[in-house]
Design a protein that fits this description.
Helices cover 50% and strands 9% of the residues. The chain is of the alpha/beta class. Strands 1-6-5-2-4-3 form a six-stranded mixed beta sheet, sandwiched between helices.
């Protein structure tokens, strides 16, 4: 998918370029900066010495030494001083300038750490929002795969109010699913008791009627009346909404290559995250989302945390796929997209 949050060690990412949260000297330091220099070896430090430093919000590019990527892009994030000293603009410039360098060097994939959220003290939830907003804006104009690499779960913070709301929604959904299951069990128990008290002469019906065999003719008729496929529904909805293909697959966090496969194959079998990504891109209400899922052979379940989180956002009319993926990541669920 074009943008993905992953839990990994950035020095092990097999991408075209990784981004280093460097200091102004570019000569190495602690945290991510130190880890990248240690993994890359002395070749990286020698290249950085020749650059003569870097200003806050700007970026420089070097080779990658012993790292598995081709390039290291060094950017200097702002130190947090309360937010009124231009920190958001400087942080956005770090991401934007780094992405431009990656594009200029024909990179197809780039991995970022959460810049300034460590020793520089930038609040993590705000740093995340700047990162997502800036990357999203860039990907509207460029075809590039971008990873935001989180080393550990403690480094990632969803807004506390949203986290609490989703957690409560999940708890309510689980409670409802359990209640529905219990009610069904009670109905079955009552039914069993009624039949046990019935006169012996009363025949007990079969639990399920015997299936009626199809004739060859009726089976062919049934196949001939098959409903529209997932691909057909997707393309129909795009046309009905007057969207362009590019607008749709970008809003769905889907690559152009995957969208081309779907468009060219009427019987394409997507994954569930792909179906839901397109439902989000098309801003489908829950009934139409369920319909699209059904056409691909899936359903929403109140016993599945992934499904419940996606349902929460649709039910609240929040169709920002990046926000949804942040929540899915926070709850350790798969992300939406291709």
């Amino acid at each position: 998918m074009p943008f993905e949050i992953v839990r990994n060690d950035i020095t092990k990412m097999k991408v075209d370029a990784i981004v280093n949260a460097a200091n102004r000297s570019l000569l190495g330091g602690g945290g991510v900066d130190g880890a990248i220099h240690r993994a890359a070896g002395p070749e990286l430090l020698a290249e950085c010495r020749a650059l003569g430093g870097c200003d806050t919000g700007d970026a420089r590019i070097t080779g990658a030494g012993r790292l598995p990527c081709r390039y290291v892009i060094h950017t200097v994030g702002p130190v947090w001083r309360g937010g009124a000293s231009g920190e958001p603009a400087a942080l956005a410039s770090c991401y934007r300038t780094s992405l431009r360098l990656a594009a200029e060097h024909r990179c197809e994939s780039v991995a970022f750490p959460l810049i300034s959220a460590g020793a520089y003290g930038y609040p993590r939830d705000q740093a995340l929002q700047v990162a997502v907003d800036t990357i999203r804006a860039f990907l509207q104009e460029q075809e590039l795969t971008v990873y935001l690499v989180i080393f550990d779960r403690d480094s990632f913070q969803l807004g506390s109010a949203l986290y609490r709301d989703i957690a409560a929604f999940i708890d309510d959904a689980y409670a409802q699913a359990h209640s529905d299951s219990s009610a069904e069990q009670r109905r079955r128990q009552l039914s069993e008791s009624a039949w046990q008290r019935a006169p012996l002469a009363a025949p007990r019906p079969a639990a399920m009627p015997a299936p009626q065999p199809f004739s060859d003719r009726s089976l062919l008729d049934a196949i001939g009346q098959i409903d529209e496929s997932f691909s057909q529904m997707l393309l129909r909805k795009i046309d009905e909404l007057g969207m362009t293909d590019a607008a749709c697959y970008k809003r769905a966090n889907i690559s152009r290559k995957l969208f081309s496969k779907i468009r060219s194959d009427v019987h394409y079998k997507p994954s569930k995250p792909t179906v839901l990504a397109f439902a989000i891109a098309l801003r489908l209400p829950l009934p139409e989302t369920r319909d699209m899922l059904q056409k691909a052979g899936f359903a929403l379940s109140r016993s599945n945390k992934f499904d419940i989180i996606v349902e929460y956002f649709i039910a609240h009319g929040r169709y920002d796929i990046f926000e949804i993926n942040e929540a899915l990541f926070a709850f350790d669920q798969p992300l939406l997209g291709g």
